[in-house]
Amino acid sequence: MAVQESHYILPRPEFDKPVKLLIVVSPYYKDIADNMVAGAVAEIEAVGGSYEVVEVPGALEIPTAIGISDRASNFDGYVALGCVIRGETTHYDTVCNDSSRALQLLGLQGLCIGNGILTVENRKQAEVRADPKDQNKGGGAAAAALHLIALARKWGAQTKGVGFKPASDSYRLA
């Protein structure tokens, strides 16, 4: 009999000002995507946040949509949702690796992104992970984005004595 693994889940962050997230979803497997969106929406609403949902054709387009949005809009964070199920070719590896890497690069540029792109071997695995009453990976991706937004707001408010910034707004010439 397999041992059920227990995972620690951070408490929900609290916000002084409202948060606004963009959920970018690929509805390639519509029922799975809908479940993931439902989980993400519930998590965002639980902290009093607002959201918009935009659909893209596939997982590879998710990072591009987030990049476009970051340049053209005012979202605090992003939730990337999709599902890639292994097929008969190596296309699965390309989609999994490239979408994940692109999201990571956007994150390293300072974007607050929760990665909820499922990478699974079969439909059953996807259904369990997407179900808001089971593994709720959509809710988990939204929670990740919310935690990153909380960190960005915490550290973004600090301006004195951080890094190479001068301790005051005035400059001294020697």
Structure explained in plain terms:
With 174 residues, the protein is an alpha/beta fold. 43% of the residues lie in helices and 17% in strands. It has five helices and four strands, in the order βαβαβαβαα. The protein has a four-stranded parallel beta sheet, sandwiched between helices. Strand 1 (20-25), helix 1 (30-46) and strand 2 form a beta-alpha-beta unit. Helix 1 (30-46) packs across helix 5. It is globular, with a radius of gyration of 18 Å. The termini are far apart. The model has no long low-confidence stretch (mean pLDDT 92).
Oligomerization status of the protein chains:
single chain
As a percent range, the share of strand residues is 15-25%
Shape category: globular
Sequence stretches where pLDDT stays below 50 over 5 or more residues: none
Helix content: 40-55%
Structural class: alpha/beta
Q: Going across the major beta sheet, what is the strand order?
A: 2-1-3-4
Task: Provide the residue-averaged pLDDT.
Answer: 92
Number of distinct beta strands: 4
Supply the number of helical segments: 5
Series of secondary-structure elements, N-terminal to C-terminal: EHEHEHEHH
Radius of gyration: 18 Å
Give a short summary of the structure.
Helix 1 (30-46) links the parallel strand 1 (20-25) and strand 2 (50-55). The chain has helices spanning 30-46, 61-72, 91-108, 123-130, 137-156; strands at 20-25, 50-55, 77-85, 113-120.
